[in-house]
Write a structure and sequence with these properties.
about 425 residues; 2 domains
Length: about 425
């Protein structure tokens, strides 16, 4: 309960404790205590009280007026709370639905605008200071930055949004242990779903509505700060994109919960604006979430599925900046095609095949009739084409590799002999 304010004297023996002793201490204690509470039901209430006491202590600390002399205490508290959030997200199934809402509410109170401004000020002071008593924290700050989690308000927001994602995911999945090893979006796209089928209680319905509102508010904050993020460092952008990815996935969970007041149209608006931004879609975490969420939503929307069957091939050829994102896009395309007719599947394969058969991939992916798509590209004279600027053999090879991965992924997922035979006939 006092791990956030432990006085740990700087020592070479602590240098191997990465990224900092305070985060490791709070993360380890939180995991251990919650594990005991889960394994021994008789200890559940005591465990929950210990967690509540820790949160009350951190909340009280966050509400005080900070002076320049509080920099070290503020830094250790931030590191401690980051560790707590990570462990709490992994053990979200410890709490009941209303208890998770209380947890989210307190965490949101701690991360007030006033506190986050103080956090930014403190770590700016640490980075620019030359005082001996801040030397160890300058080293910790470099370690955090090197690991892709620069200390500051955005790292706290990331931990909070991961907790929100876990809290909404646990309401969808019947087997909580599944989420320890598998991402919720992958679970929703898997062949063997583990979704809850029982009716929600009144308290659970109220919890879903409240979590939906939290996710929407966080997305609004992210969108409002988009211009600021563009001016930040590469690591700050990456953190911001991670926060946005967790927020989108959380809101997607809320949409899938029937008791939710989540607006599918609003979610699609966020997704559309993101997928049109090449900078955001270059981030593997955010791009993966956007593509998967769109594919999941298409499961209950034939119109969206048909639209994605045309949009995803274009994204794979035109916009995919890395093979990792290509792999996700190919998986999503195969998932979407499951909800469409065999003709659409075969047409999509031939459309992608046109890219491979043409010596001019930048003019392939013709739109038109199925008969037109079956012809080699050079025999086609009508229809609109995607315009690409491929300036080197390396770029062409990237496109070819992307298309091949997409074609093979679709053919494997469909598990249809007719589709497979058409696939292998593709030039």
């Amino acid at each position: 309960m006092e791990s956030y304010c432990q006085k740990i004297i700087s020592s070479p023996f602590l240098w191997n404790i990465q990224p900092s002793p305070w985060e490791c201490l709070s993360a380890g204690l939180t995991s251990a205590v919650l594990s005991l509470g889960l394994r021994f039901p008789a200890l559940h209430d005591i465990t929950r009280q210990a967690i509540d006491n820790y949160l009350d202590n951190v909340l009280g600390f966050s509400e005080q007026e900070f002076q320049d002399s509080d920099v070290l205490n503020l830094a250790s508290t931030v590191a401690s709370f980051m560790g707590f959030l990570e462990s709490a997200a992994s053990f979200a199934h410890f709490w009941t639905a209303p208890e998770r809402l209380d947890l989210i509410t307190i965490a949101k109170q701690i991360l007030s605008e006033k506190f986050l401004i103080s956090v930014e000020t403190a770590f700016s002071t640490i980075r620019n200071a030359h005082d001996k008593h801040l030397r160890s924290w300058k080293r910790y700050s470099r370690h955090y930055a090197a690991s892709g989690r620069p200390l500051g308000s955005m790292s706290l927001q990331r931990g909070f949004m991961r907790l929100l994602l876990s809290s909404t995911s646990i309401m969808l999945v019947s087997d909580a242990t599944t989420l320890l090893t598998t991402d919720i979006l992958d679970v929703l796209m898997s062949e063997t779903l583990h979704l809850k089928k029982s009716e929600f209680t009144t308290n659970e319905v109220e919890t879903v509505e409240s979590l939906t509102q939290v996710a929407a508010e966080e997305m609004a904050l992210i969108e409002d700060g988009a211009d600021y993020v563009q001016l930040g460092t590469a690591w700050q952008q990456k953190l911001a994109f991670s926060v946005k990815a967790f927020a989108l996935a959380s809101y997607c969970n809320c949409v899938l919960l029937k008791e939710s007041t989540a607006d599918t149209g609003l979610l699609m608006k966020w997704l559309d604006s993101t997928i049109q931004d090449s900078v955001q879609m270059a981030d593997e975490t955010l791009a993966g979430v956007v593509l998967k969420v769109m594919a999941i939503l298409s499961q209950g929307d034939p119109g969206l599925a048909a639209s994605l069957s045309r949009t995803l091939p274009r994204f794979i050829v035109r916009n995919s900046p890395s093979q990792s994102i290509v792999g996700v896009a190919a998986k999503c395309l195969a998932f979407v095609l499951q909800f469409l007719s065999q003709d659409v599947i075969i047409t999509t394969l031939y459309t992608l095949g046109n890219v491979l058969s043409s010596g001019i991939p930048e003019r392939a992916l013709h739109t038109g009739s199925l008969r037109d798509r079956l012809l080699p590209y050079d025999q086609q004279t009508t229809g609109s084409a995607i315009s690409l600027a491929l300036n080197s053999d390396e770029e062409k090879n990237h496109v070819y590799g992307s298309v091949i991965e997409a074609v093979v992924g679709v053919a494997k997922t469909c598990k249809d002999e007719k589709v497979g035979s058409h696939h292998y006939q593709c030039p």
